[in-house]
Amino acid sequence: MGEGVKKTKKRQILNKLFKFLNQYSQVLVIQLENVGSNQIQDARFKLRKEGLGEMLVTKNVNPFQIFQMLIPPPRPSSRRVSP
């Protein structure tokens, strides 16, 4: 798989995550280790069937890039605090 194809897929995943963040009021980010694909498939099916949400499973994509774009950096305070 070429480097351009990988970047395009990553961009598509990040766009989908961005869409979910705008669509739903709550988001849960977890790390999956030693979880079978059948378990993930069952969980995804149940979420969709009951209308509870969507599951986006990615590999080697950093979802925190989207969070950094959505959350503005804190502004420095113009007031000085005396000790």
Report on this model:
This protein is mostly helical. The chain has a domain at 37-70. It has helices at 3-23, 37-49, 64-70. The relative contact order is 0.14.
Write a concise keyword list for the protein shown above.
mainly alpha
Please summarize the sheet with the most strands.
none
CA-based gyration radius: 18 Å
- Terminal CA distance reads 58 Å
| Range of helix content | 40-55%
SSE order: HHH
- Structural class computed from helices and strand pairing: mainly alpha
Q: What are the low-pLDDT stretches, counting only 5+ consecutive residues below 50?
A: none
Q: Strand percentage, roughly?
A: under 5%
Write the layout of secondary structure elements.
Blueprint: H1 3-23, H2 37-49, H3 64-70
Concise account of the structure shown:
Helix content is 49%, strand content 0%. With 83 residues, it is mostly helical. The chain is extended, with a radius of gyration of 18 Å.
